Amino acid sequence: MNSEQLRELAEHYDNSDLSDHIEQATWEEPEAVGEPMVTYALRLPKPVIDRLRAAAKDRGIKVSTLMREWLAERLTIETAGHDATVPVSALLALVAERGTGQVPHAS
Fold this sequence. Notes:
By secondary structure, the protein is mostly helical. It contains five helices and no strands. About 5% of the residues are buried. The model has no long low-confidence stretch (mean pLDDT about 80).
């Protein structure tokens, strides 16, 4: 949206009576939020982050998603032994790497 369109839109809503629309509106409960996330800054050497970016791109996921999955995998292995739960994206990547040499992209 360019600045002219934004100005026109603001002018429209500044000068319009929306009470009929508001009266017809219905309330929808927001979806339940899963486990809360906490941000943690992590300094990594450039070659490591470059490898993470490449691995995430090959899997079609965000770097942060890949890091979260790998950390969760490792923590599960450390605390539960080798009967660990593994994310589906990791399994798909393993199957693709071993089977065809290509990594699938998540949809």
